[in-house]
Amino acid sequence: MTWVNSDGRRHHKSKPIPNRTLPVMAESGDGEIAGTPVQELVLNPQNVPKNYIYEEGGSGFRDALLPSQDDDIPVLDLHRLSSPFTAQQELVKLHHALHSWGCFQAINHGMESSFLDKVREVSKQFFELPKEEKKKYAREPNDIEGYGNDIIYSKQQRLDWTDRVYLKVLPEDQRQFKFWPQSPNDFRSTVLQYTESLRLLSEVILKAMAKSLNLEENSFLNETGERSSMFLRFNYYPPCPIPDHVLGVKPHADGSTITFLLQDKEVEGLQVLKDDQWFKVPIIPNALLINVGDQIEIMSNGIFRSPVHRVVINKEKERLTAAMFCSPDPEKVIKPLDKLVDETRPILYRPVKNYVEIYFQYYQQGKRPMEASKI
Ligand code: OGA
Ligand code: NI
Question: Cα(83) to centroid of ligand 2, in Å?
């Protein structure tokens, strides 16, 4: 994928941004581990490379709170959203969910649990393949599409304890099939079907989001364009011998418009930051977690919140998830919708274009790319 290229750094030089989420960096390792799948590092538990370790304040990653009953991560029934009798009530819930948490768990989304199991299964089967087989789909240096782990931009960088398969699944003419695993043999067909289901669902959600703001239902869709993209990322988090000092994914907010996360069915790990406090995202079997990304925060002029989240890992158990990131056509300029700007609600964000391109560079330095857009 071409959204991170070698000149991405330019953005950082020309516009230094405040460093808000970055913890103090540990010294980097000797560079040899670059490109080694995390899955293989696990074979040598005494020797977790320094680039992964949070020495300071690392303990406590796993003692986040469970949301309380009266302020729980909202659960929305998408069936009720589409029925005329219940839609209005559900839209109010949606508005509240995206304003306060920036995310919700979607149930009754129309996908069979057996199909979601299939999506999990093809991913699991791929990560279980011998390394030579997986390497056939390896990402290229400085590019993100394919199989691999973090791109290393600097020696200071703290790495995520995860291996991934990253695929641009839409628009269709931008699919690079050389990165799409051919084994297991139903990997591709499953990904295609999952993509189509989520493409349709993303339209439903973006329309509902507009309606919940009393806007015409296509208000967001018109801005993202006919050639909006979707990126699918399968995340594999191997067990880690020192889970209090390593993160599966460091704190970040997504650069998407919205993200669909299919969680592991048994192993928790995702945490969301709200009111400066980390909360565990509970597992609801067969729900999809839907969260706002930075580009909807911008378009909604801050009414919907792109939540900071992170992933903690586990000493004994592996965890697998699948994240689908929706993103506008990179040619489109993204800015707060006119109707959401007035004297009482001044414009909060500058226009951005091809936001995902700058996103990863910032992310890997522990910074929020959103800072580049805030006025
Ligand atoms: C991501 C992400 C969460 C998870 O991929 O951006 O936040 O639980 N993943 O895997
Ligand atoms: Ni994320």
Answer: 30
